[in-house]
Structures are given as structure tokens and as C-alpha cells.
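Give me the fold.
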Amino acid sequence: MKRTVSKKPAIIVLTGASGAGKTTLVLKLSDLALPGVVGINCDRVKLESNDSEDPNDRQAAILQYWLSEIQRPEKKIDLAVLDTQIRPHRALEVLSQEGIIDSEVVLVDCERDKRNERLRNERQQSELATRDMDCWAAYLRGQADALGLKIIDTSEDSIQASLERLMRIVAELRNRRQAGLEK
């Protein structure tokens, strides 16, 4: 018996603290130019907001914006990998609200010292190497563990090894989607 297949693209939401390696992975994935696969840095959109707006709602709005953009038929996107800083439970809620069946939320994580070194040296953004960012990273790791999410830890892996881990997740999601099409 065939299941109803969603015409919507499959979605992988990468979340993680600044300096963990999300953007690097999305850029390297984009360099591969895989047919039907797109990587998007969600920070590239600036939505109107006010000072009283809850940052969680803002991240959800940014994710909703990109989901609506990639679902436009003329885009012909089969799978999108989105680089975000959204709370994992909010990403799952938004994906569900948008009716995205084939999806994964994946934490890109890194040891604190390595992440802060990247922020200070490679990225020249020492203002982000703070206790608040350390707490944010710990919170995201706790949520990922509690929700049983996949984690790509970039602490010791080369960029290529981390990209290969992401590519396995892409392949798994594509295979699950294809298996659903064949049932």
C-alpha cells in the first residue's frame, strides 16, 4: 500500500551555538552541488521585529520564512539543510505545523574551548565567546540529548569528516523518503 507522499521538500534543520561549525558544513555541502539539495544560512534574512519580541518566536519566524521559500514549486528543491540557532523543540514544532513529514533536527556541537577558540581566532568574533554562549551550547546539547536528536560533534573531526557525517544524515533521510514512496 502506498502512503500519501508529501510534495514538500525533506528538511534537515541544523542548530547549534555560534562557532560550532553549522555554517561551514552548509557551505561545504553547497559546494558539492548535489542535484535537488540546497544549503541555506537562515541568518541571511532580516525579518521585522520589535524589542519586546521573544527571541524564540523570532527564530521560529525565520525558520517558517525559509520553509515557505524552499517550498515554492519553481525552486525544485528535494532536500534543504538549514543553518539555524533555533531551539530543537521549537524546530520540531514548526516542522510539524508546516506539515513537513520528512525531516531531521540535528545539533552541531563542539567542545567549549574549541568553539571559543574558533570564535576568537578564525572568525574574529570574540564578543561571541561568552558565558552566555557557553550556556546556550549546554542548553542545546541537553535538549538534543533529551529529544534523542542526531549530533555532529565537530570538536576533533576535520571539516571533511564532519561533512561526511552530515552526508550520511542526508542519505538516510533521502532513503527514508524513497522507501515511503515505494510502499
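The domain at 10-182 is CATH 3.40.50.300 (Rossmann fold).
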